[in-house]
Amino acid sequence: MPIAVLLITDRPEQSHKLDRLLSLWGRCAVIDLNRPMTKLPETRQLLISDVDLSSRASVEAMRRALAGQKRSVPHLCLVRDGSARTKVQANAIGASAVLPADVPVKVLLGEVGRMLNGGGGPEPVQQHFLSASVAVADMLASAARGELLPAAAIEEGVEAINRAADNRDLGAWLELVWDHDDATYQHCLLVAGLAATFAQRLGFPEHARRLVTGAALLHDIGKARIPIDVLHKPGPLTAEELLIVREHPQIGYEMLRRQGDFAPDIVEVARSHHEYLDGSGYPQGLRAGEISDLVRMITICDVYGALIERRSYRAPMAPEEAYRVLLTMVGKLDADLVRVFRQVALPN
Ligand SMILES: [Fe+2]
Ligand SMILES: [Fe+2]
Q1: Ligand nearest to the CA of 248
Q2: Using alpha carbons only, how large is the chain's radius of gyration in Å?
Q3: Measured on CA atoms in the order 137, 206, 177, 111, is the torsion positive or negative?
Q4: Please, what are the averages of pLDDT over each run of 10 residues along the chain (348 residues)?
Q5: Residue 273 CA: which ligand is closest?
Q6: Among positive and negative, which fits the CA dihedral 243, 140, 30, 176?
Q7: Separation of CA 304 and ligand 2 centre (Å)
Q8: C-alpha span between 163 and 124 (Å, rounded)
Q9: Could you say which ligand is closest to the alpha carbon of residue 184?
Q10: How many whole angstroms from 204 Cα to the centroid of ligand 1?
Q11: What residues does each domain of the chain span?
């Protein structure tokens, strides 16, 4: 069976992340140039090479490896130095584009997306998803290390998610999200995708859409400071663990407020997205009049998102069933917004 993207590398241990990101476009195979070469799999869309072109042996191995490949498949060649000699070698092994191997992931993925699309046309949902994934990875890593959040990257992630929502193909977005094996990533991108679609369906103007999607992307940022073994515990939490997890709204609120880069409405969502209109939520036990429309929207997306998430230890709930759960939460969720959310959850 032909594969979509083939990555040839002489350092497979460093290519793992790339390989995972590329697999979003379809089947991706990685060939280790240092291993005895068998016949390369037939490649349909894109060939990427990440080898040391200053080594004669590597260049020769590349030539042999590529001998059976169709010349019509574009070849992105990642180079480790900008010397003229390396450029000549890249041309000699048939590169159709050349990039430094240490280029930021976002630039690399942008180029990959451009090459896969034949240099033009609308960006596919995968491209938006990849941009958002990169932003979320950056955001969660910074939060876990106690560093400032990358505000500009988050803004780009929000933009990517809103453009994906323009395509009105939430199903494709969900398929990509479900492939993510990290539960926190999956949750951020899932809730943000739902919220972006919700705002789009409500006909919100662009600035309000940015606010809604940004709030969704950041709502659980406080979880980055909760111990992983508690957060990802497969099964019910003890009373003590539950208390720890329930600190995340306040932690997130403090993080965002202290940094000062985020709209007050977004900061509020981090603290209040577990509040319910009847006062039964946490951390403050707010009641309807104290809960903003933005918080109400994100709470609906959050509850619904948690129900349809895919976990290794339990089957996901079907959309119809998950939407029925929202309907049973009378008095807790905003009934009018839940009604509109039906178009997001069950579009057909
Ligand atoms: Fe939360
Ligand atoms: Fe959440």
Answers
A1: 1
A2: 23
A3: negative
A4: 81 76 74 79 84 89 80 88 88 90 81 73 73 88 92 95 89 83 86 97 96 98 92 89 96 97 97 98 97 98 94 81 96 97 92
A5: 1
A6: positive
A7: 10
A8: 10
A9: 2
A10: 24
A11: 3-105, 125-345
CATH class (in words) of the domain with range 125-345: mainly alpha
Report residue 187 as tokens. 């949750």
Ligand 1 centroid–CA 274 distance in Å is 6
pTM for this model (two decimals) = 0.77
How far is ligand 1, taken at its centre, from the CA of residue 293, in Å? 17
Ligand 2 centroid to 55 CA: how many Å? 49
- The torsion angles phi and psi of 8, rounded to 5 degrees, stand at -110, 125
For residue 162, what pLDDT is reported?
A: 96
Token pair 């000062």 is found at: 260
Ligand nearest to the CA of 253: 1
Residues whose CB is less than 8 angstroms from the CB of residue 24 and which lie 6 or more positions away in sequence, other chains included:
126, 129, 130, 176, 179
- What is the model's pLDDT at position 127? 81
Q: How far apart are CA 69 and CA 96, in angstroms?
A: 14
3-105: CATH architecture: 3-Layer(aba) Sandwich (3.40)
| Closest CA relative to residue 176, chosen from 315, 314, 321, 26 | 26
Place of tokens 């109400």: 296
User: Which residue shows structure tokens 């019509």?
Assistant: 72
